[in-house]
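RECORD TYPE: protein structure
NAME: Probable RNA-binding protein EIF1AD
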Amino acid sequence: MSTATKRKRVVKEIFDDFSLPKEGEQIVKVVCSKGNNLHEVMTAEGDLFLASMPTKFRKIFWIKRGDYVVVEPIDEGYKVKAEIVSMLYKDRIKYIKEEGQWPQAFDKKTAISVAHILEDLLPPSDDSGDEDTAPMVVNSNRVQLEYQEESEEETDEEEES
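PREDICTED:
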């Protein structure tokens, strides 16, 4: 099977499949991408862990922060605890909500924003909030050039010569 045929089959599988998550699978929200086809996801209960994207989805689908995916837990992972089974788009999310299997925690009215979670994970800063008085950071990787302004007398002398 050619690469184009495989790609078409995978795209059709994702967009045309309106099945509900099977037993053992769960709907999670992507919090951030960690690189190397790993994504940090959050469950409806608020648990954070890494999920890997299988090779059949790579270079075909791109996942961004805030997207919803269906994951299946894997046993051999210590840090990576799940593998992405399917991506959820608007039509499929609407279908799952109609069937009553959408997690209540992911409803827009009751959802915890990702920004608040990330703020809780970051250590408090020592800044006093006075950003205007902070000194400018000098980029030491740039060559420091000094510009000399010529006086009017010097430019007049050069023009006369």
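COMMENT: The chain has a mean pLDDT of 79.
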